[in-house]
# Entry
Amino acid sequence: MGPGEAPPLPNFPIFSAPAAHVWTSKLIHECNYLQGNEGNVDPQHLSVLHRMSSPSKAPDERTKQVDALLAADVAPLIEVEIAPFGLRVFATRMLGADEKYVRISNFIMPNCSAFDGGPLHDPAKSPPKPNIGYWMHWHVPIDDHHHWKYAIAYCYDDPIDAAFQHRLVRSEMTEDYDTRRRRSNRYLQDRGEMERLTFLGMGFNFYDHDRFAVESQGGVSDRTREHLGASDRGVIAMRRLMIRAIEGLQGGEAPTLSASNGADPVADLVVVSQKVPADAETKAVWRQYRPQQGKRPVLAS
Ligand SMILES: [Fe+2]
# Structure
């Protein structure tokens, strides 16, 4: 994006990691790329969109645990902080008097996000470990009303379980990277399933849920009819950054990532999803970690 020759690809860690540590898929979306990326900076939606109708309905133990965490506080406190690559978005869910659940997701200018997504390895084979990698979503415009969502799983130290990811992400995907559930068939929503099993009635695949949420706003949503609230702080901050960048570009500034001169633009990226003491300062949680240029962030001594 921007004038002149396309800049080199940003030097993200996913490009220099061993091939077995990265797993990628893509999915067509019938909406604007920015709209597609907004869900990634809206951590509140996890407490609604991807939930079971009650945690007890979850198909396995891990989903049950995650669902219970997300159900414990459906109105998390959302805070944002400017980072060198874009934004850190903090979501804090209170878990009683002593503990809270903190998620740190990241907006990477101008069209990526990094966050703790689905498990990187099959939880049926080994218990999930924290801080082993992250998911990156890269929303690449096709035109104003369509984009490709590249979903990239990255594990710092170990190979990804590719067969598991294939089952999880690609099981309902067609050869041409579309899905069985789409706008034209109302995403095969089953109202009975909404009572019985899932909040949305659209099966268990997160990619279908997210696609429904962003496409059903239209190809370019009518933002004059929005009523943004406190849970939209990530979306608001992302749009402000983009508007500022567009104004900068019009004034002759280089786009943010192409100005990084080959350095890793996300060198101080930390993706967090963990329980912490209730009195811990949320915005300080990521500073407990010492980022290491695309390797596992380690606890700072
Ligand atoms: Fe989602």
Q: What stands out?
A: The longest helix spans residues 233-250. The mean pLDDT is 92.
